[in-house]
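User: Here's a structure from my thesis project, written as structure tokens. My advisor, Dr. K., wants to see whether a designed sequence matches the one we expressed. Can you design one independently, without my sequence as a hint?
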């Protein structure tokens, strides 16, 4: 009996080691429950590299609904090196005078907006180490809850964006996945498994360049993969076959990243 238990435990451990893109704790939330058209990204430089992930994500959304493309909008509120506790979510979502109270359209014309609510979805990420740092992980869970509560009070859906491991520290993948998934479950929030998508992409194509030279921030391909995973998670639609392009990402790589994004999301939410 003891040998059987040990064998099962060993098999479980090997399955995790052989598939770094597999989650440990399973996510409790698979959908946000609304059809969103407006998105706020709250985070740091992992978003704003390569002309900002929100712009690539918006291209995916608009390309999939060309008839209503103009109705979709996204804004990014980022602070270099920031954790969730650096951001004032109440100020971002202040009715009437907060984020998105005006927009630039056409030839830099200013238009003042009168939305019932500024955003349908708020996508949040913490600093690259914060969820797994012994002195910062508590703040991650504290502010994941605080911000999720604030977002819901303002009529939007909170989403947590699971970040990726450093290129030279792949062991971070599982630790980050566990903490983001736990925070998502604790706060009834959707989790976007971008970190798992990075691991899966590299498992399929080890020479794929997903990182900038610092081995932390995303390359153009990394930003593209993050955006495709966001699209697959939030819209629950496959990005495979999308014509969305991005400077620095060739067509073959785009196809690979679209496939990885969809596969990762499907596996993350599999029963």
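Assistant: Designed independently from the structure alone:
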């Amino acid at each position: 009996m003891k040998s059987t238990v040990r064998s099962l435990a060993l098999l479980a451990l090997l399955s995790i080691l052989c598939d770094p893109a597999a989650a440990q704790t399973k996510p409790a939330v698979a959908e946000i429950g609304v059809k969103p058209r407006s998105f706020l990204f709250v985070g740091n430089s992992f978003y704003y590299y390569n002309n900002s992930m929100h712009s690539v994500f918006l291209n995916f959304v608009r390309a999939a609904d060309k008839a209503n493309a103009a109705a979709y909008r996204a804004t990014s509120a980022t602070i270099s090196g920031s954790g969730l506790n650096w951001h004032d979510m109440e100020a971002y979502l202040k009715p009437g005078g907060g984020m998105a109270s005006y927009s630039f359209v056409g030839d830099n014309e200013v238009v003042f907006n009168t939305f019932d609510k500024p955003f349908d979805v708020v996508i949040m990420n913490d600093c690259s180490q914060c969820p797994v740092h012994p002195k910062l992980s508590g703040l991650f869970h504290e502010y994941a809850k605080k911000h999720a509560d604030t977002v819901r009070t303002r009529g939007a859906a909170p989403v947590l964006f699971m970040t990726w491991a450093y290129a030279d520290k792949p062991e971070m993948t599982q630790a980050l996945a566990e903490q983001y998934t736990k925070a998502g479950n604790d706060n009834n929030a959707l989790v976007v498994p971008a970190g798992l998508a990075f691991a899966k992409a590299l498992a399929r194509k080890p020479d794929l360049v997903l990182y900038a030279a610092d081995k932390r921030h995303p390359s153009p391909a990394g930003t593209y993969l993050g955006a495709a995973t966001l699209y697959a998670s939030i819209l629950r639609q496959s990005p495979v076959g999308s014509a969305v392009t991005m400077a620095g990402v060739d067509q073959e790589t785009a196809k690979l990243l679209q496939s990885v994004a969809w596969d990762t999301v499907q596996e993350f939410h599999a029963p």
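When you compare it with your expressed construct, this may help: Confidence is low (pLDDT under 50) at residues 1-18.
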